[in-house]
Amino acid sequence: MHAITRRIARRVRTALGACGLIGGASAALVAGAARAAAAQASDTTPTLRLGDAYGELASRNPRVAAAKALAAATNATVRSASLPPDPQVQLGFMNYALPDLRPMAPLGMMQLQIMQMIPLPGKLGLAGGAARARSDAAHDRADGTYWTARVGLADAFYELYRLDAQLGVARRTIALLGDIEQTAQAMYRVGQASQPDVLRAQVEIARMTEDTLRMVAMRSGAAARFNAQLDRTADSTRGTPVLPAFPDTAPSLDSLLALATRDRPVVQAGRADVTAAERQRDLAARDMWPNIAVGVQLGRRPGGVGNLMGSLMVGASIPVFMNARQGGARDAAAAIAEMSRADLRATEAETRASVFTAYADLLRARRLTALYRNTVLPQAEATAASALASYRVGHVDFMTVLDDRMTVNTYEQDLHQLESDEGNAWAQLEALVARNLINANSRAAHASGGSQ
After folding, report:
1. Does CATH number 1.20.1070 belong to domain 86-121+290-322?
2. I need a labelling partner for 58 at 20 to 30 A (CA). Which of 37, 164, 310, 333 fits?
3. What architecture (CATH level 2) is domain 2-57+143-275+348-433?
4. Beta strands 308-316 and 96-97, pairing class
């Protein structure tokens, strides 16, 4: 396909270099090449469905994999957070004579000591609750990373669809301009048209060919972005994107707002952060009180019966630097809890604004798409056909014919941009509510499909 496009451009440049314009034969070649390109694309190019790409995203996107690994690492720390400190065991050899290392009678003995630090009631529960909340936040952020990657993938997919569809429109327009140029040539030969009419048609064909080459280059960039989301090489994607069938009706704004503020992963992560920070704050307040240490000690002196001895020990840590250490940690934890609540409010506000924006974009695209498809384009096509017929009998000038045809081209290009905008709006809303709103593997009944 790219070879065909390059051949068209080469012929255009050759004609322009030779006489500053494109001759009638070159225009016919351009039109024929465009028709052949469109036919070849529709017959041989495989289709690319958004739902299939979504299926690959969870397992192939590197950022999603990294977020899942971080969530797994955070989850691995939850069980240990609610366990008490490890006991300490000491084995001592007391009162041994030097240098022969013999126990001194009657004081020499072997001694075994076991000490266990016992946190005050509630501390371990708070520590475990904070760890579980942090793990929940990490899992929610992993989900958010997936939905963010879906938005990027959908954006590249709809960009590919738009460019393919607009390339198809441009090539059909080139073919129609070639027909118009031949009509002007025929009328010029019999004295019913002027030579500038032929030249204007040829210049318009050259401009449309330039637009085609520009869109082909843009498509390569969109394909590279699409492949990057799936961790593929930049040029590995082959296929024509198929526009999904969008729902006939859009959900209500209130329902989307309720779902987004409840289920959006970053909002859920923010709530988990608040829970973790509040439990950490409560734990820091309890750390103002000392922990208790309990231990037992067994001793044995050399000799016979009655040489075993036992001891019971109870101790506590002394918060000598309470105001600087425990007090500072308590104040820091309280500030972090307040920061987490503020972050959550900001995330909820940003979520509501994003829903409003995406919903407005969705309604705009849907309404304008229906207007273009049902009213604007049919009227523009009828006007262009009427102008060509009137030109053949000398009732309108040639510029009217060209302007009307290029107006149809512009409206068709705009229609595919609106279809792409609607798809992006659906993808944004899906990420905000964390659920599918369209069947990404369906096919729109009016999907035109472009060509590579």
Report:
1. no
2. 164
3. Up-down Bundle (1.20)
4. unpaired
